[in-house]
Amino acid sequence: MAGGIITSASGGTHFEAKITFAVIISCIMAATGGLMFGYDIGISGGVTSMPRFLQDFFPEVYVKTKDTRRKESNYCKYDNQNLQLFTSSLYLAALVATIVASPVNRTLGRKQTMLAAGFFFVVGTGFSSLARSLFILIIGRVLLGCGVGFANQAVPLFLSEIAPTRIRGALNILFQLNITIGILLANLVNWFTSKMQGGNGWRVSLGFGGIPAILLTIGSIIVEDTPNSLVERGFEEYAKVVLKKIRGVDNVDPEFEEILNASKAAREAKGRRSAPFGGLLVRHNRPPFIIAIFMQVFQQFTGINAIMFYAPVLFSTLGFHSDASLYSAVITGAVNVVSTLVSVYFVDKLGRRVLLLEAGVQMFVSQMVIGAVLMKKVQDYSDDLGKGYAFLVVVMVCMFVSSFAWSWGPLGWLIPSETFPLETRSAGASVTVFVNMLFTFLIAQSFLSMLCRMKFAIFWFFSAWVLLMSLFTIFLIPETKNVPIEEMQERVWKRHWFWKRFMDRIED
Fold it and tell me: Per the UniProt record, which residue ranges are transmembrane (predicted)?
């Protein structure tokens, strides 16, 4: 055990909890699902900029990037639907998989759902790295997408339910921190494998994803399921044993009683309606449902994944040579990791809203500047940025990535995972992942085509969305810092200026 006793006020009672070794290890092992997700996000951009990979699977793109006799707009060299499908197929599969993952998560628990994710990741990595045809390559990406769907369904819930209230935000953000580490590792691996002799570095890049996949699988075998999930499935005695273990104290009765009450309310709700998905539309459950949907839409329309998916391709488009483009992607990946640590430190001190609002200003300014630089310096057939402007673009991209990494990145997962009541928590997680994957797929499948048609204005397009989501935050996203997960209705929704009107009556 480590640390002292943390007491979380809960309407006159206190939940005692130590920061135990069991909690830390469980959270670290579970968050490797984020490591795998991040690696999959980061690896595709570097791989698709490798000449041998393009030559083997996308020869028409290879010709456009290498044939100097062809007059091809700098913004359009990588505009190819099949190439975009290589990236986006993962997210389309994740979108479908999360529908299946929801009942698995509810009936078998968080632990088994994470184990299934690990299995999909291991098999998908094998198919991707050994592929000899585009069909097998896409099959591998689809299997990886199934892993993403299962992992993103279970891991944020696991982290929110197992963490002590006072540090729930920081531990939950381990998932996002591992995503950023995964992206950085992918960029570093791509940088080294791009220099390999024989041109098969892309296979090493894709195969390296097997390491976090195996870690997630092993971690899922080792960890205990959450007390909330165990109670929900009828294992009440064992749930209390696990709660004592992860809290490091014997006096867990107040917290355990609250979990039992939440489970009882969930079972009663199932008897009254087609829960849990039907319960999402019940009036008093609409606030977290609406916020979860909009946060996923907004998270993707910041433009972050357009940059993370295609960072090397994007930098190549802007006039960086291949080595420089991969190097710049490594820099942005490192900024991503460091900035997520900022969120880990401040999320339970400053709160969720402060981070979201500050980042809105920073993201808006950086994207407006990038668009202005590209309008001035990057024309259809001229991409000579010059050292000064190239440096400015990298700085602005880093400024954008850093602000996203301590705000909409981790909080887009944290806030939905902590605000749904137990009766709709797995369904809410399913909807959260489904919407996130849907819009991730749309951005991945369309970004290179949008870049070709909108050119520099694509960054202004995303900045307009940043302005909109900042207004949404000001008026509609409540503060959930230090609120016990089973008390959101009483202490958050019933006190919010707008959402309290949905709490005027609790429907039977």
Answer: 21-39, 83-101, 113-130, 171-192, 204-223, 289-313, 325-347, 354-374, 389-415, 427-451, 457-478
